[in-house]
Queue: 3 jobs
Job 1
Amino acid sequence: MRYLVTGGAGFLGSHLCEHFLKHGHEVTCVDNFSSSDGSNLRYLGGYEGFLSACLDVTQTPLSDFFDQVKFDGIFNLACPASPPFYQNMPIETTLTCVVGATNVLDLATRDNCTVLQASTSEVYGDPEVHPQTEEYRGNVNSFGPRACYDEGKRAAEALFHDYAERRNTDIRVARIFNTYGPRMLANDGRVVSNFIVQALQDKPITIYGDGSQSRSFCYVDDLISAMLRLFYADYKRPVNIGNPGEFTIKELAEKVIAITNSKSEITYHDLPVDDPIQRCPDITLAKETLLWEGPQVCLDRGLEDTVQYFMSELKDGRI
Amino acid sequence: MRYLVTGGAGFLGSHLCEHFLKHGHEVTCVDNFSSSDGSNLRYLGGYEGFLSACLDVTQTPLSDFFDQVKFDGIFNLACPASPPFYQNMPIETTLTCVVGATNVLDLATRDNCTVLQASTSEVYGDPEVHPQTEEYRGNVNSFGPRACYDEGKRAAEALFHDYAERRNTDIRVARIFNTYGPRMLANDGRVVSNFIVQALQDKPITIYGDGSQSRSFCYVDDLISAMLRLFYADYKRPVNIGNPGEFTIKELAEKVIAITNSKSEITYHDLPVDDPIQRCPDITLAKETLLWEGPQVCLDRGLEDTVQYFMSELKDGRI
């Protein structure tokens, strides 16, 4: 089979590409490297059947670019996904979400193949309902510093809905909650990579707010496993994918310090505007619909693997 | 002054164009006539200084099209705005909202002029807070039959926010609540025009649901007046514009029957999916910030004028 992964050079994208390559499939990665440095391609370049194209899904119609190729499945992961990155290019982020969505949807419609949208728990914004089910409509500020991503992803869901309704496109929509693991960027501003890199360098661990806000952290292998189940299932509505185990940011910092045996101290800083206080997936639907057993990797084990990865990155001078 | 009005052939757009023309300004109307039939141009064509271009804001970069022209102000009203129209072209609607927004924002940035976005009470979805203030984040289903419009308009607000922040574009965002008056399309599925045309033809008046859902109806002159105040004010965040007087749909039907002296009977039909139960603007911000006195035209007078308009349309065979 031949799969297209947009954003394939990113954290999740590279794991997904590698999964398919390991199973003997052909994979084409499309990425504009706006929020990844291409270094994840080193895990993929050795596989036969891997192709990488540097292009922007808002600029190049994929149906034109791939006019001689037919895909058997498409994963749309192209978008800056961490606040420092998407807030640094907010207009491009919204357009990547919306124009990028129509681009992959047009291609999937042409090729009559399944297309999976990497949606996000950010569609719930700063939720007032816990845990969040897929029915919850969210609490998003449409006119704020996170809106470029949140509203872009919401509008992309609307487009996926309408292509399914109007053009019979075979869509999947995964609402991805916080995920962590090897190949996260050291500098992407996400809390797990931030804390680990700070701890490994014995630098102060920066908590925004008082650290009592909670997050659920899903290890990347669990996330990819559930995403693939969704892709092969016949379910065309949004599905939450994540780990419902909740930890406060302070607990995470303490775990990281313990695992890395770090001398870092915790420092507290102002909470950014519109930062969600709590977010946790209700994964009942995923378990029932995808026959998914739920996450298998506990936070301690996942953090240990992630720490190993960043230690190696530091040792090799890549951070 | 030279103003650009996208969607200038529509209901609100044509009133806005005429206002400027009456005051001796030049007006360029851009419209693709996807949800208007061009008949409103008959009110504008007689004015010197009126130009109309048939183009699609998702297809043609306005900065290229108007490379020899500089505008002093832009009003972005281009979008199908009634559910039957936008649900008939959902993908195009989302793209009009999002790509259209970047298009006018790019032009306003180039011309260093103010650009006003016609946003909508639909950003509040089916609200759980009454009346709605601008702080309320809404209750929108991102994956449903109204999402193309609601999420498109929310994403457009995000883009206006980010152009203001990043490119210093001089933005205005009007969240427009239900508006009615002469030049509504007879067939656009909005409740006021529906009821009046049905009543004038002695056909059954179709209420969806039990008629107890409420709406606030703002007469077009009041809306345009407030929108102009916003345009000339120095306030760059969203502002509700509408009439906070609430009436149930059933009350509206009875008023219309009385005014038209109609033999129509009321019939009840299933409520459409995601139809809001109640919507009413809190216009405190508009009153304080724009020194707006609030709506001046009561529903009875506004309906009488609107009935006169549709009677004339019927008499002239245009319905």
Job 2
Amino acid sequence: MWKNTRFTDLVGVEHPLMLAPMAGPGTAALAIAVSEAGGLGGLPCAMLTPEQVEREFNLIINKTKKPINFNFFCHLPNVISEEADRQWRQRLAPYFAEYGLDPAAPSTAPSRNPFGEEMCRLMEAIRPKVVSFHFGLPDAALVARLKQAGCRILSSATTVAEARWLEARGADAIIAQGYEAGGHRGMFLSDDLATQVGTFSLVPQVADAVSVPVIAAGGIADGRGFAAALVLGASAVSVGTAYLFTPEAKVVAPYRAALAKAGETPTAITNIMTGRPARGLVNRFIRDVGPLSPDAPAFPHAAGAVAQVRAAAEAAGSGDFTASWAGQSAALARPTGAAELTRDLVRNCRSIMGVD
Amino acid sequence: MWKNTRFTDLVGVEHPLMLAPMAGPGTAALAIAVSEAGGLGGLPCAMLTPEQVEREFNLIINKTKKPINFNFFCHLPNVISEEADRQWRQRLAPYFAEYGLDPAAPSTAPSRNPFGEEMCRLMEAIRPKVVSFHFGLPDAALVARLKQAGCRILSSATTVAEARWLEARGADAIIAQGYEAGGHRGMFLSDDLATQVGTFSLVPQVADAVSVPVIAAGGIADGRGFAAALVLGASAVSVGTAYLFTPEAKVVAPYRAALAKAGETPTAITNIMTGRPARGLVNRFIRDVGPLSPDAPAFPHAAGAVAQVRAAAEAAGSGDFTASWAGQSAALARPTGAAELTRDLVRNCRSIMGVD
């Protein structure tokens, strides 16, 4: 068995591996497959309404009794000014024109609401084994209610300071999210991208700084990465991008095509898709307008105008405006089933570590 | 003994660990200590004249018969325009004024000349076991002469494409330099910092892409990092920053003071010290003007004007303008002797890997 059982004991799973929540591609089927294979599956709820979360929960509970993680964003809500929205749409005007779209049409982008009262009541009813957060933690009263309901609380840290902050506010484990990670940076105490830290440096420093278990995230896509993260001091790993290559992930065709070419396409951290920095495969939009633009309105409002162009582009078979979130190890991944991937990661890690 | 002996066999050392060449802090004493302890010590020659290199070589050969690496830069020489120099000095004018300096005074910055004919002749006379490069490789004819002289050729790659390029041009081993690494980025096929890759992602992908041994660099400062790099597929590690904490390194007082506070100070990649991106501890100058400035003249010319302010600041006990190069794991390092550090890294790595 595993030498370090701090994470597996904490959340009640067989293997020290969690599915990184990926709002959009993450599905109930993916969560079920990972949890049934002995990892910690999870449902990304950031872009779902409470009704949708409840529906997904019912799908999951029908198929597995294993622990599941429900993941939420907990950013401070921003209001977009008319001026900022106008400027952003003006910046994107050539693309609206290219696809014959009305830049004044209302956006159909899915909401990205922070965790609040309604979701908390739902979690108190569902009582999942794990609730995890990105961008810090919600109000202390909400955290206390989740703990009272028996939920283990996880959140992401991108620096040692963020890890200490989370531990002090009750996180039961810290996800150390290295620079390599795909998707949104969990950063919340600083917005300085220049000082974000690679997985190799972040994991041992966070492990030294906190007394709760550390979960390494960022760049882990095969057994080597799994084993190396444990060697660095992690009690578990969080794997996201590799699961995008499974049929259980809901990945639109242009996104899947971009992933298949990950070996030839770099990733970059960009703020132009949503307003917050997130790592994805570089495409035309990122090359033209990003990767970082001061014109992008605050999260999540940049996404509104982009979603309109993206939908038209995707309908035309183009991924030019698709947020193809991926980590820097995307090229190490291969298409396979989610259960098989979980078993492969475990088997290859154990083989490298010489564990039976 | 070590399971993977590809690097140790290639260069004839006991342990799969090389001292990262650090132009400035690197000394003959440091090289000797690491090589005598069974690693691959090295002399950074980028800021030395051929006469100085020969003098250091004589110091080294008197103290050790073990393999030594001689490291050079091989950038394409740039000429600075009067206009660019004038603009840069204007940008720095407040600092010249602060220290009562004449911005028109000629710079006393040490030269950073690329490897050329004279150094090649010296290497042919010295015949070191290893010659390594940063920023690519010199002309094929020079590489061929070094190989003819029996030197193993190493160079740094920051992407898979650079690793393939180096292997195709005769590199006998590739240093995979991750984003975490201190000092100058070795990047030479691209100047796009946004797509630079963390050690965790870079090492396995380079190991998969080339058939020569891979040396992991960036974020390795203790036995955990050493072991994790080998698990990721490296045949050896390159350790730099941790050796800055040894008395054998020539580290000016403000730099040493900054290193001692590495736990509270982030690092960033900056181009304002020399004109090329390099990672160092953030200080006043980087906060004010950087970390990245389009005003910085091309490498190495930015260094001229900065050196004048830096010298005056250091004389006044300030590290505000000191290039305190350091990697993202600097806070993991502790003051100790270079031989002891080498032995500790080896012992802790072997203990973690369960090797006797």
Job 3
Amino acid sequence: MAEAAGVSRQTVSNVLNAPAVVRPDTRGRVEKAIADLGYRPHASARRLRTRKSSTIGVRLDPVQNGISGAVLDRFLHAVTEQADRRGYRILLYTAASPADEIAQFGRLLDGADVDGFVLTSTSFDDPRTEWLIAAGAEFVTFGRPWGLDDVDDPRHRWVDVDGRHGIASATRSLLDDGARRIAFVGWPAESGAGNDRRRGWREAMAAGSGLSPKALDALDLHLEDSVSVAAAAVHGLLEGGGLDAVVCASDTLALGASTVVGPGVRVVGYDDTPVAAALGFSSVQQPLEEVASAALQLLLDGESGGEAGGAAGGAADRHRLLRPRTVWR
Amino acid sequence: MAEAAGVSRQTVSNVLNAPAVVRPDTRGRVEKAIADLGYRPHASARRLRTRKSSTIGVRLDPVQNGISGAVLDRFLHAVTEQADRRGYRILLYTAASPADEIAQFGRLLDGADVDGFVLTSTSFDDPRTEWLIAAGAEFVTFGRPWGLDDVDDPRHRWVDVDGRHGIASATRSLLDDGARRIAFVGWPAESGAGNDRRRGWREAMAAGSGLSPKALDALDLHLEDSVSVAAAAVHGLLEGGGLDAVVCASDTLALGASTVVGPGVRVVGYDDTPVAAALGFSSVQQPLEEVASAALQLLLDGESGGEAGGAAGGAADRHRLLRPRTVWR
């Protein structure tokens, strides 16, 4: 190879591993020789040399039974495609529990199988992110830390979607169209994401519905994520005092609501699943392509790569809260 | 390491790479030394030594808009979990076309990134499998080759689900319950899997419905996989001569049918998606865990690993056609 290009072995190595340090004309000659000889560095040899795997670890989440479960699969698609364009591959692993996932982190890092991780499904006091921070590992999460004290932690890079803004915006649109009695069908209070979406509805309703706090409480449902449970609860509200519209924390709940409301009552779900499109109800759509792009940028480009303004090392370089949009039908 | 265990370096290497050749007591001593020293072989060094990556390449299929698209994601989950138990990892790649996927095969094999492939979504005269056979690469497909001359090709290992049997069995159950006018809502004739499912309905109806071939033709719909198209077409049949039941090639079509039939008309879909469970229609369920298990067995255990009987090298060692079951609701 070096002979064919008339350069030293070190120069060939530089072209492969640090092309910026090689003069363009020399680089062109070496690249032509590489192409002519059909040379490809063996992946494992390259990894040993560079100590980089060009591989990102992603957990494949357990299959969800709800119809919104596919959202994380769609995120995985976006991450895989965008990583591919950057020359990175995705290595999948599974884990039955946070402790099991931490054991996987250890194995993957010890074996130099991955350069870093993209995590999903963050929770209050997530032991996984604590472990990764302590281990000095590279990671980014889709989902903000839900604790009060860690959302601004500079060691935890995250991307999330502003569900509160999305639900508030959808609720305001319904109010603008004349709806007043707008119910919120959400999850129990343990869910960080669920509470955030509920807050969006509550704020928009408090500002624009003219209803009393007590009337709003009566329109605020805390349910498990089930079609039949949502259908029964919304049916109860229709019998009680009637409804103008229903805003839901998920398309599963919206599907339940859509089976009992009349044609004049609009239903808005969350996640814009194929079911929402098929049955024709509106839904708040997460910008998953943008989430994937921001996650890879935070993980791979580090603090210097942020095009978001502000001083070097600002929060915008480490955290991104993206806005969803409602698909009206 | 060798010193700590009081054995030769070759023995340590054997314990790591070919434990069966080491005496159990010696193996125990080396394994204890490995544990005491916290030793882990570097993945890349291991790969160079063994020429094996312990990694399987799987294409992440483009996101499907239909509600059955999640089936391939569920298959990916099953493959990832079962591969993990065997010490194999899944490397994801994406491809925009068969030609693009073939280029990915080349890159992954040249770099020794994967030991083999699990392919999905096979088609008539699939250029991908032809390329892999010519390259001498290890692969297995979920989906049989749909050509007339290649289904028994010993160089093409495959696992598939017998959709014809699944649809025939569901249709016979409906006939046993007294239904006679049972429509089939399927795809256009270009689909190998779709034609196979249609054949199951046709055979069961010819044997048990008492309807003429002409009457069966009128109950046999060829539609695109769309909720609204299916709803309109089934509505037409209801207006025409009435229906006792509807059997569909997908849950998307079944969802459309379920929105227009009355409570006395049973609807059976295919793939048992969360939507079928949520809306309460029956559906034929593919045994995806079994498919994943059989695929890994054919790929990793080779011809010697088949527990299916028959002479060595028999078709059962290379092809598995599994039976689905109907989930009745």
